[in-house]
Amino acid sequence: MTMARPRAELSGGPAKRVQILAAALLSGVAYLPLARFMDWRVNAFVAALFALRLAALRWPRASPGPLALVILTLAGVANVLSIHHGLTGREGGSALFVTMLALKLLELRNRRDLRVVAVLLGFLVVVQFLFDQSMALAAYLGLVSVGLVSLLVALNGGMGSPGWPALARIGLRLCLQAVPLTLVLFLLFPRLSAPLWSLSLDPGVGVMGMSDRMEPGTISELVINGELAFRVRFDQDPPNADRLYWRGLVLWEPDARGWSPGLDPARPVATSIQAVGDAVGYEVLLEPTRQRWLFALDLPLEVPETAHRSGDFQLLAKERVTGPERYRARSALDYRTEAPPDWLRERALELPPNITARMRNLVAGWRADAREPWSIVQAGLAFFNREPFHYTLLPPRLGANPTDEFLFETRRGFCEHFAGSFAVLMRLAGIPSRVVLGYLGGEPNRIGGYHMVWQSDAHAWVEVLIPDRGWVRVDPTAAVDPSRVDNSGAARLLGANAPQRFEVDPSGLLARALRQTRLFADSLDAAWQDWVLDFSLDHQRSLLEHLGLEDVRERGLALLMVAASGIVLGLTLWGLLGQRTPPPPLEAVYARFCQRLARAGLPRRPEEGPRDYAERVARSRPDLAAPVTRFIALYVRERYSPDQSPDGVHGLKRCVEGFRPRRAKG
Prior knowledge:
With 666 residues, the chain is an alpha+beta fold. The chain folds into three domains: 14-167, no CATH class; 218-509, no CATH class; 585-657, no CATH class. The chain contains 22 helices and 20 strands. The strands form six sheets. Strands 9-12-6-1-18-17 form a six-stranded antiparallel beta sheet. A five-stranded antiparallel beta sheet has the order 8-2-16-19-20. Strands 7-11-10 form a three-stranded antiparallel beta sheet, with no helix packed on it. The longest helix has 25 residues, at 509-533. The chain is elongated, with a radius of gyration of 36 Å. The two termini are 58 Å apart.
């Protein structure tokens, strides 16, 4: 009578515990990038389960029983529900998934459980691309995938590999064999009209970016952030950095503390722009902002199809920018605009409620000496240049009337202090004005052939209405004497991302090397965005046109994909069949042992088994009887054992290394 073979338990034996440890560590490494997007309570619960799994390897009694697992499962589900109020959606579903994966690690009893964990790890790799699609994450998860394949190889007998380094080599080789087929599917699989990763799965997540309200300190806080705002690729030679004013929001309404839009940008206003000189064409790749406004050079003439230009020359997208947004535009750097209607002119003269007497007296002096509005503007700029105003990212705190205190007491501030106060003074002088928020400058990346505009380039300036010229840009921050620019404070807060207008070229070899490294890394990110994340139906059709297949449509593309996949698989199979399969490690050691005996004049006969061979060698050469008998005994025990161990193979290797028989004399 035969008994059913029990399921292979994993709790006993060092090799089995190593597989559990490998699965647990691989799960932790795969989860690390996702942890920054999970709530801290989810991370704490998952970390506690990982710690319990590792402790159970050292102390088996710490492994939870069935009742404890049920309690932990209910606690994990309750934890996710309390945070996300549901178990669906990107955040809620991902939190539930990683919680269940961590719980699964606590009930590893057999090889089937480990294989299930390996499959779940594959899903974990895919889930992370819902949160981040950067090239760095793709490279990191590629290494995780190699480890995952190596774990599967180990669970399926190891393919004759005695240790984890050999398993890792096999896993890497298997992953590389999948690269050609992956490229074929990526290039030829039928595409959507928009890139897959631009589809928003959760529009409620906020992204760091420019606010629609300006108060003292708001832009300086944004400038301290070192994130990338957008990349720009010009059609021709780019303009000088001091002419790169990237227009964003327009603020009309002042109050006691700051400025806000106050005017509906969608309200139709008849405006026209007369370009003076050639226009500049360019392409912008904007990072997600969760806002509708886009950024364009001052002033935009042509706008993308997915946006429109408001009456105050803002670019507004039809939908919120929830993913990387690519668009083209043309702008005039020198221009004239038509005069706005009377109601808009009156809106641009409204004053905040906290105008003081010394503010009125200051403007009264300018008006008394000026003959035209532009002379008043020049008088205001001369005031900022002549008086001891300082540009700094570390200004003192202002009280209830920040404009008055900045103009006559502290006189230290950032661009929002200068722009906001200058616009108020112009309105006091009877000159319509408004504040514009955007970016100034951009860092050229000659490696990638584009400009990088950082959050640290955030800037605010003023537009004044001048007869016969229309709206004219005035930058009061640029009027500050350069000797009163606090570069040290900017360097302490910004590091390498200081605004372009106050940037000091690094002279040290290390600084230049670090900068080139940063530019090269950003070039790789830009290429990843262009050729992978933004690869859409239009890119696929362009590729087919280059191959002379412009007439191929959906069905033809599917047939082409199947044919190309078959060719790739056939070539891969042909290459694999042409390779010599190395013998298992145990058999390789035995073959080496037989070769050394053959060189001593004692070759193994084809019909001889290990023990018969050893007996014949012992009869012929009594001096070799002891080492040969000892080796064959170890080999037979290891060869026919149900569980071969790496230690046994290593022991046999040591025996062969010390076994060097010589041919018998005579």
